[in-house]
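Moderator note: this is an archived Q&A kept for reference. The question asked for a predicted structure of one protein chain; the sequence and the answer are reproduced below.
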Amino acid sequence: MKLIGSKTSPYVRKVRVILAEKSIAAEFVEDNVWSPETGVTPFNPLTKVPTLLLDDGEPLYDSRVIAEYLDSLPGASFLPREARARALARRDEALGDGISDAGILCRLERQRDAARQDAAWIKRQMDKVNAGIAAVSRSVASRRGAPMTLGDIACACALLWVDFRMPELAWRKDPALKAWIEPLEARPSFANTRPS
């Protein structure tokens, strides 16, 4: 398999963490989708990462699709079998991805010329990021010590992206979040996928 992505993407990191946790070998090909020379478009018409190329060349895209596929392979599973627990893990994955979505939209808006930035749009996205972080503190972090789920991975990757791109949010001041994230960050799967 071959994973195409950016080391700074929280969605790519989610997939890289799963690959590492399950000891699945995949070649990592770094690609910048914002570059006119991006090589991802022939494999993903949406020109987004992550894109996973299966051994037969078939592409999978969207981190949720890739994560579900990888989870179905032999080894550890991060999606519970019981319906309610599975739904909660998928909900938490959506929460983590939603924090990432809003954070990235805000960051892109802030990169526009100051005169063209929409302050209301930025506030709306930041409200989502902050509400999402609060929800992680209430629900995900409260399960500290429970088996790691796909929701934990997605939420951790989102909050660690916020650390990387928006350190001013200082979410680690929340004791529940700090206690929850530290054991995850110490895992080789997270430590070895930290963006530089």
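Archived answer notes: The two ends are 24 Å apart (CA to CA).
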